[in-house]
Design goal:
about 475 residues; alpha/beta; 7-stranded mixed sheet; 7 strands; about 55% helix; globular
Length: about 475
């Protein structure tokens, strides 16, 4: 019997759909720690190209060598536990791929440990949700390049189209770079989702948009952007409760969950010394949404509002569009700056233009905004690409951005991520920032010294 080219461990939604996707192009074998789940899966989807195994011994025996195995298990300890169970059944030069949302530092550790045992380890970020896993995700593999070359012909046919006659999978770099890039992808995702939620709040609270009008507004926003998140947002406002004319969105509790990748992005940015205030604000907003008790207490607190005159619905929609577009570009920019810095520190030799390309399809943050970043980060990037980016922040669009922040503040509507984006932009545009005073304060109370603008050297003052 011909052996399978690829194996998948873990048959939760993502693992099951990815296995079905891979089996369209390659002979695939699957394993789940619960045998009943494997049996149920094979009874439903099994074919000549898709078979199951009841034990890890049987699973590994059914794979051609060097074995290529994708683990789709929960991040953290479960990954280490499965590696330990698998090791007795693996041989030198086998390739083990972690396709979950693992912390990149864990991936670095695992690669180093397995290399000593002669096993190649790939940390591969996968984005696209359950639909992407089935029909074509964006995949971000990082690890040994020679090992990736043996995987390439298996992964390429299963990845999403990039719209440029290519697919959304590419070798990212060595060590934990694949999972790092996926983590930052998720950080940007947090940011963009929060930005969209803030625009929704403004249109609903200030503009009194109905759900039908909200759906149309976000569909209009998406006409030129082609953003997955805007696309699903427009659809969400149409969804109604079963056997009712009431809209589901009005009954969903306003506390947002998180699985950790946004927080990891924030921690990484602090470690690498990169400012990502839009993404940080999005993480904070999710945390704050869960503090229902404090929100209930504070709801009756007096707020001195300066309620200025509101624009009509059409004007408000246009103003909000500018704020959303510019803030979204800032969120992407912050993510790429974080990848740039980590790349320098780890010598991963990442191609940021290629990363932007493989995010064009399949993944959650896919949109036409990525065209701009793909061009900006090309090795032969032209001045025109950078000028095109800067041109978006000129004139009416920027005025609208500022106007929305003013309106929301005057009416007591929180815009944490949009405000953070604007403040970030303004800080970058300042020739001189007030941190000169902070350096003076530090030197005053702690003799931390400072530099001067008029002469070279390190200085300290005996302050009076």
């Amino acid at each position: 019997m011909q052996k399978a080219e690829i194996g998948v461990i873990g048959l939760a939604v993502m693992g099951a759909n990815l296995a079905r996707n891979l089996a369209r192009h390659n002979k695939t074998v699957v394993f789940n720690r619960t045998t009943e789940k494997t049996t149920e899966f094979i009874n439903k989807f099994g074919s000549e190209n898709l078979t199951g195994s009841k034990t890890l011994k049987e699973f590994t025996a059914n794979l051609s060598t060097p074995r290529k195995i994708i683990m789709m298990v929960k991040s953290g300890d479960p990954v280490d536990q499965f590696i330990a169970k698998l090791l007795p059944h693996l041989s030198k030069n086998d390739i083990l791929i972690d396709g979950g949302n693992s912390l990149y530092t864990d991936t670095i550790r695992r690669q180093q440990d397995l290399k000593k045992k002669g096993i190649h380890f790939i940390g591969m970020g996968i984005s696209g949700g359950e639909e992407g896993a089935l029909n074509g995700p964006s995949m971000m593999p990082g690890g040994d390049k020679n090992a990736y070359k043996k995987l390439e012909k298996i992964l390429i046919p299963s990845a999403a189209s990039d719209g440029l006659k290519g697919t959304c999978v590419s070798y990212i770099g060595n060590s934990g770079s694949g999972h790092f890039v996926k983590m930052v992808h998720n950080g940007i995702e947090y940011g963009v989702m929060q930005l969209i939620a803030e625009i929704y709040n403004v249109l609903k609270q200030l503009g009194k948009f109905t759900n039908q009008e909200l759906s149309k507004a976000f569909a209009d926003y998406n006409k030129t952007v082609n953003s997955f998140l805007l696309e699903i947002t427009a659809k969400i406002f149409k969804e109604k409760l079963p056997d009712s004319e009431k809209h589901l969105i009005d009954f969903i509790k306003d506390t947002a969950g998180q699985k950790g990748t946004g927080k990891w992005t924030t921690i990484a940015a602090l470690n690498y010394g990169v400012a990502i205030p839009t993404i940080n604000a999005a993480v904070d907003a999710r945390i704050l949404s869960g503090d229902i008790e404090q929100r209930a207490k504070s709801n009756s607190h007096p707020r001195a509002l300066n309620k200025s005159k509101l624009p009509n619905k059409k004007e408000l929609q246009n103003i909000a569009k500018s704020a959303l577009e510019l803030s979204t570009l800032i969120a992407y920019h912050q993510g790429f700056k974080l990848i740039e810095q980590a790349n320098k520190e780890h010598n991963w030799n990442l191609n940021l233009s290629e990363i932007a390309r493989i995010w064009r399809g399949g993944c959650i943050i896919r949109s036409n905004y990525l065209d701009l970043f793909q061009n900006i980060y090309k090795p032969d990037t032209t001045k025109k690409a950078n000028e095109m980016a800067l041109s978006k922040f000129k004139g009416k669009a920027q005025k609208n951005w500022r106007q929305l922040v003013e309106l929301a503040s005057a009416h007591g509507i929180p815009l944490p991520a949009i405000s953070a984006s604007l403040n970030y932009y303004d800080s970058l545009c300042q020739a001189r920032l007030p941190q000169s005073l902070i350096q003076a304060q530090r030197d005053f109370f702690g003799a931390h010294t400072y530099e001067r603008t008029d002469k070279k050297g390190i200085f300290h003052t005996n302050w009076k």
